[in-house]
Amino acid sequence: MKLNHLSVSYALVGSLILTASLLLASCTSKPIATTSSAKNLFPNTYALDDGESTITWIKDNQGTTMHEAGLFPDATPEVIAELGLQYGIASTISCFLLHADGKWALFDTGLGIGKGQLITVLDSLNVSSESISELFITHFHGDHIGGMVYEGKPVFPNAEVYVGQREYDAWINEMPKENTRMQREAMDVYKNRLHFFQFGDTLTHGIVCIDAVGHTPGHTVFQKGNLLVIGDLLHGAALQIPHPEICARFDMDKEQAVASRIRILKYAADNNLLMAGMHLPEPAFIKPGQAK
Ligand SMILES: [Zn+2]
Question: Which residues have C-beta under 5 Å from ligand 1, the single-atom ion?
């Protein structure tokens, strides 16, 4: 089956086509196992184009997440009906585990111990929290940094932490202190292992930091080879891929969020990049080239 045989528009069948393209993506990528238990996750582990690194989806939320259309106030009832989304828009809360250069790293850390499943899933993959070498943080919302700290201590005691300078400045230096307690605690607990990046920087493992501001002041997308980790660029993929001009309520600056969404979805499509998204529907990977 070839991807270009998919001739039906996303706009017509919404989430069904999302599912179809996910299946198609699995036909053209090379899912492989990195540990004995990871092989059972097919197609949730993908090999990257360097032939050595892998990326694995970790579902942090329990059960199923369906957003109500009301989360997207600019979506008219006509658009929702046309896409068949009257009963909800599928989503997840997700993290991603990277294996590269012999090391384990995480993109974001989910809701946190007691709320999310990250540590349980890592255990099932035989990856201990002590063996996580790096955290790459897309932004500072609680469903992304909530897993960094538990009872005042680092959950990942050996991890170097990469955060955007702009995101850090906004939350730690500009917003009212009473609204940013979680963010301050996370940054304080890891203060000796924080690394600040600028947009355009290339980090360890060749990970490039891409400006995706709008959802938050320093929201970052990460690229490694043919993989694009899109953070919160999409909260309801079945709605926002055909209509990138529609924001979720969570987007802090709507105008910037729309511009970033349009620019990065086009970049992903033009370069045929596998997108991993923290709120994409299961299994949280999508190839956007078929989503035009
Ligand atoms: Zn989020």
Answer: 141, 143, 232
Q: Which fold has domain 3-290?
A: Metallo-beta-lactamase; Chain A (3.60.15)
- Residues with Cβ within 8 Å of 140's Cβ and at least 6 positions away in sequence, in order, are 163, 167, 168, 171, 180, 183, 186, 216
* Distance between Cα 72 and ligand 1 center (Å): 14
5: CA distance to ligand 1 center in Å? 33
Q: How far is the centre of ligand 1, averaged over its atoms, from the C-alpha of 202 (Å)? A: 24
pLDDT digit string, tens, across residues 231-290: 999 999 999 999 999 999 999 999 999 999 999 999 999 999 999 999 999 989 986 454
Q: How close is the Cα of 3 to the center of ligand 1, in Å? A: 29
